[in-house]
């Protein structure tokens, strides 16, 4: 076991906001609405919600419980619950660490674009039109500069530790994010064309249902809840022993899913508002145009049609995106930093700078080989690595970790839990049902 004096979140609310901040990021506000728009609207929404409930939530409990039991970084925590197969746990921890760094390497590039689109309208308003145009252009120099503008604040927050860094900034940024969301949704829903997007988002067309849609929905559920890359395991290791893990996990999952749903209420109607204003969003064949860069093409075009008001609305929207991206990025960086401070006995400040530097170099490599690497890294890490690692974590929790040890850990925050329906269902569910469901989803194309 690790040192019991290890850093902790100072309150349950602080943990929930930090964990929700990790989960609520580009996966919700960029990924989920884009996936929904590309996969027929409401049918994707309902399959996604089903995946969160039947797969992501039970596995979120498993990751948080493994982390709190190990009271250490994911390599040690997974080793501690792997019984006589400790090498399996250590290997999975290292692979999860690589998954987190892989996601962060492309995440910082996209987040950098958000910074550029946030600042650009203000520069244009003050007469710096050339600088504004450069920030919205696509070039290696611009991508590299904006990536650095985002990566440095991420490093600085993680450098300050758990309570003074991650928890403090998550607790400040998350209420701002919620407020901005509510304002933006109310505004968009009253614009001409918004109701058409709302109908597509909420009324299902089952003709769009396909095996590929189900796989995408599962990947999206794992990506948006930060599962399969050890983030929730690390956060669980900083969680108080008195916390009720199933209840806390439910609150995090509900916050995350609620924000994803609200993001759809914002983006889907906004797309059709843009279409009403003359912006093309679908091809003649019905495919979504610019699906990977939806928020960087369709929405700025819509803001441009709104005159001066559009400048401030655009700034508020991209500020919201930057806040969401930052709360997720700090959780991804914390995974390798936690490993380095404990495995190499390094100071947090030293570890965060050299690890942040290596991830920055990886991001730069992607920037200079964008066409070949960006889409590949996104697909490998989010659609395959996360669900597969989530499956392996479920197998560790279900088959290698002794059931009595799991119960001992869980009842510390909920003494009556052993007598509840949750305990009668969850262990077997994670052990058998989750792996079977995930294998069926992956194998659907071959059935």
UniProtKB/TrEMBL annotation:
It is a multi-pass membrane protein. The chain crosses the membrane at residues 12-30, 42-66, 87-115, 144-162, 174-194, 214-240, 252-273, 311-331, 351-371, 383-401, 421-444. The keyword Transmembrane helix applies. InterPro entries: Na/ntran_symport, SNS_sf, YocR/YhdH-like. It holds the Pfam family SNF. Keywords: Membrane, Transmembrane, Transmembrane helix, Transport. This is Sodium-dependent transporter.
């Amino acid at each position: 076991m690790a040192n019991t004096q290890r850093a902790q979140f100072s309150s349950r609310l602080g943990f929930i906001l930090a964990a929700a901040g990790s989960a609520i990021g580009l996966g919700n506000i960029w990924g989920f609405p884009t996936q929904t728009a590309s996969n027929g609207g409401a049918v994707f929404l309902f399959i996604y919600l089903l995946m969160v409930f039947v797969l992501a939530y039970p596995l979120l409990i498993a990751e948080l419980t493994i982390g709190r039991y190990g009271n250490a970084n994911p390599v040690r925590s997974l080793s501690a619950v792997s019984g006589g197969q400790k090498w399996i746990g250590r290997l999975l921890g290292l692979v999860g660490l690589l998954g987190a760094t892989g996601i962060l390497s492309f995440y910082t590039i996209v987040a950098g674009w958000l910074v550029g689109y946030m600042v650009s309208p203000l520069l244009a308003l003050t007469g710096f039109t050339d600088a504004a145009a450069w920030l919205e252009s696509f070039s290696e120099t611009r991508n590299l500069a904006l990536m650095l503008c985002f990566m440095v604040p991420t490093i600085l927050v993680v450098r300050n530790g758990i309570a003074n860094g991650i928890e403090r900034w998550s607790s400040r940024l998350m209420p701002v994010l919620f407020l901005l969301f509510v304002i933006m949704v109310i505004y968009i829903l009253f614009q001409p064309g918004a109701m058409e997007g709302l109908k597509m988002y909420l009324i299902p067309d089952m003709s769009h249902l396909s095996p590929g849609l189900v796989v995408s929905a599962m990947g999206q559920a794992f990506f948006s809840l930060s599962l399969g890359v050890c983030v929730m395991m690390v956060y669980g290791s900083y969680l108080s022993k008195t916390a009720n893990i199933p209840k806390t996990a439910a609150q995090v999952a509900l916050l995350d899913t609620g924000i994803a749903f609200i993001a759809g209420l914002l983006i889907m109607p906004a797309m059709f508002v843009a279409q009403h204003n003359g912006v093309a969003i679908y091809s003649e064949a019905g495919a979504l145009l610019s699906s990977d860069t939806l928020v960087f093409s369709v929405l700025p075009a819509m803001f441009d049609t709104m005159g001066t008001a559009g400048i401030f609305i655009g700034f508020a929207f991209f500020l919201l995106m930057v806040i969401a991206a930052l709360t997720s990025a700090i959780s991804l960086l914390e995974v390798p930093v936690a490993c380095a401070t404990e495995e190499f006995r390094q100071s947090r400040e030293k570890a965060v700078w050299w690890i942040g530097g290596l991830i920055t170099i990886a991001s730069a490599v992607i920037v200079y080989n964008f066409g070949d690497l960006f889409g590949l890294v996104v697909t490998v890490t989010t659609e395959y690595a996360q669900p597969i690692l989530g499956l392996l974590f479920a197998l560790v929790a279900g088959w290698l970790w002794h059931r009595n040890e799991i119960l001992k850990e869980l009842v510390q925050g909920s003494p009556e839990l052993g007598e509840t329906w949750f305990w009668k269902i969850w262990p077997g569910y994670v052990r058998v049902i989750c792996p079977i469901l995930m294998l069926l989803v992956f194998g659907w194309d071959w059935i």
